[in-house]
């Protein structure tokens, strides 16, 4: 064979290989495992959220792989700890996207991690299913989908519950100054005043602040009938203790960050209410999680499971081509999940339907509140 022919054949092979990579996705040989990423808070103030999610993710992966995987290929999850922080989110996504070259991502759970990280996923055109609830996150791009209700709905639900059910007409707010806390403060305030209520005072606090006596003193002076406290766990614990010290003897109601053992296990938080998306978590599912992973299924565990199942279903239909995978997820109507009766998405990537509930801290745990 002549040198010229050899070079020509080699050039054709290079073109074919390159074309295959472009067709099937970045670094995808169509023979090895399909990798997806999980950006979770595995350390820090919301580590229990990460633990809950991981149990559901691992059960889904086990069941999928035991049934033959994705079109004959095994599913593999790469976990990254975003620590529920902005820098953690950016670091986690940079590794998942650039080093691990995952085909899709589940998470973040925390809005502070999601806000700076999601533009990276959009730039790489990697479909991402978030739990983070701050309004506007799904507006970052069409590769971003949310499998937990937006705070646009949670803040409205909280305001209606406080005004209509509890009958409180004068409310003060102490909120975390991040995407999540600010979003809830705005949506709660707008709906509460629309209903005819009065916001007596609204104070923002740094996410990591644990001395909140100054804003609590201002709030006490405003004479509210209730204080709405969309804070992270550490801030909520501080309010539970310091409000009593200051003699602020009114009901406290927070948001979904309070459904963590970091908050509920503290004696001072007993009796505090909070709003959260209503997520199904059946006894059968809990038993499956325990048998497969050895851990107990928490409130967010079903979301980890369903997130992986939605991605797996889309991968079976579309393969790992990013645009086809995005389209398959956007068209999802997932009716066999654990968390909600149906998961399908609005044009902006948010859930079409969502429900919330009131929970209360009782004996070191959160329980669904029934009046």
Task: Summarize the helices and strands and which ones pair or pack.
Blueprint: H1 3-24, E1 34-40, H2 47-66, E2 75-81, H3 86-99, E3 105-106, H4 111-124, E4 128-130, E5 144-146, H5 151-165, E6 170-176, H6 179-195, E7 198-205, H7 213-221, E8 226-229, H8 233-245, E9 252-254, H9 261-264, E10 273-277, H10 283-293, H11 301-318, H12 322-330, E11 333-334, E12 343-344, E13 356-362, E14 365-368
Parallel strand pairs: 1-2, 1-3, 3-4, 4-5, 6-7, 6-8, 8-9, 9-10
Antiparallel strand pairs: 10-13, 11-12, 13-14
Task: Kindly summarize this structure in a few lines.
The chain is α/β, with parallel strands linked by helices and 371 residues long. Helices cover 45% and strands 17% of the residues.
Highlighted features:
seven-stranded mixed sheet; Rossmann fold; five-stranded parallel sheet; alpha/beta; 371 residues; 45% helix; 12 helices; disordered N terminus
CATH superfamily of the largest domain, please?
Answer: Response regulator
Taking all residues together, what is the mean pLDDT? Answer: 91
Strand order of the largest sheet: 7-6-8-9-10-13-14
Q: What is the CATH domain class of the largest domain?
A: Alpha Beta
- How far is the first residue's CA from the last residue's CA? 86 Å
Which range best describes the helical content: under 10%, 10-25%, 25-40%, 40-55%, 55-70% or over 70%?
40-55%
Q: Which CATH architecture of the largest domain?
A: 3-Layer(aba) Sandwich
CATH topology of the largest domain: Rossmann fold
Strand content is: 15-25%
Order of helices and strands: HEHEHEHEEHEHEHEHEHEHHHEEEE
Major beta-sheet overview? 7 strands, mixed
Structural class: alpha/beta
**Number of separate domains:** 2
Low-confidence residue ranges: 1-28
Rounded to the nearest angstrom, the radius of gyration is: 23 Å
Strand count: 14
Shape: elongated
Number of helices: 12
């Amino acid at each position: 064979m002549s040198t010229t022919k050899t070079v020509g054949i080699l050039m054709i092979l290079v073109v074919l290989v390159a074309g295959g990579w472009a067709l099937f996705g970045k670094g995808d040989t169509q023979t090895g495992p399909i990798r997806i990423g999980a950006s979770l808070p595995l350390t820090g103030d919301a580590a229990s959220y990460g633990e809950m999610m991981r149990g559901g993710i691992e059960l889904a992966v086990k069941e999928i792989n035991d049934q033959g995987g994705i079109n004959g290929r095994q599913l593999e999850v790469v976990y990254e700890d975003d620590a529920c922080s902005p820098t953690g989110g950016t670091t986690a996504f940079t590794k998942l996207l650039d080093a691990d070259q995952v085909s899709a991502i589940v998470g973040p759970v925390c809005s502070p991690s999601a806000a700076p990280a999601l533009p990276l996923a959009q730039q790489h055109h990697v479909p991402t299913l978030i739990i983070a609830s701050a309004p506007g996150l799904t507006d970052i791009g069409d590769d971003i989908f949310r499998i937990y209700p937006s705070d646009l709905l949670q803040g409205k639900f909280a305001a209606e519950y406080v005004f209509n059910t509890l009958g409180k007409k004068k409310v003060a707010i102490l909120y975390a100054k991040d995407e999540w806390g600010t979003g809830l403060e705005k949506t709660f305030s707008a709906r509460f005043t629309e209903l005819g209520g009065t916001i007596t005072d609204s104070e923002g606090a740094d996410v990591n602040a644990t001395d909140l006596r100054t804003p609590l003193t201002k709030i006490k002076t405003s004479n509210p009938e209730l204080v709405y406290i969309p804070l992270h766990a550490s801030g909520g614990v501080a309010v539970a203790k310091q409000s009593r010290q200051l003699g602020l003897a009114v009901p406290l109601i927070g948001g979904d960050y309070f459904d963590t053992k970091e908050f509920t296990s503290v004696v001072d938080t007993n009796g505090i209410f909070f709003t959260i998306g209503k997520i199904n978590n059946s006894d059968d599912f809990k038993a499956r999680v325990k048998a497969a992973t050895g851990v107990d299924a928490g409130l967010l565990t079903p979301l980890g499971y369903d997130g992986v199942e939605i991605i797996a279903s889309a991968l079976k239909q579309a393969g790992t081509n990013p645009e086809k995978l995005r389209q398959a997820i956007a068209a999802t109507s997932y009716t066999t999940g654990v968390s909600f009766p149906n998961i399908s998405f609005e044009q902006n990537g948010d859930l079409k339907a969502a429900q919330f509930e009131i929970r209360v801290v009782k004996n070191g745990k959160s329980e669904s509140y029934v009046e």
